[in-house]
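ok trying again, last paste got cut off:
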Amino acid sequence: MAFFLYLYDCRRARETNARRVSFTKELYGYAYSWKTKTGIKQRRKPGLIDTSEGAYAVADSAIFVPGEYRSLFDSLFASYSDILKARIFEVVREV
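nice, full thing came through this time. structure:
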């Protein structure tokens, strides 16, 4: 099975803060909470990395992805191509 390494950098981060936050939430997921009569409730919305088995963050801006999930990650990175600069490498073998 093929594996891919996604390296990305967010350009113009200060100008497009809302888009950058949206991308990060879609990729890594986020936790949210709300008040109820019985107290505060919390939930976690999983991100693309959480829902893709075998995918994980290697570093701050590097993600290791199994080949079967590549199309999902490609579409996410394509939708944020206005703020992201990404490079994708196919991992041939581990040294």
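cool. The mean pLDDT is 91. Helices lie at 17-28, 48-51, 70-79.
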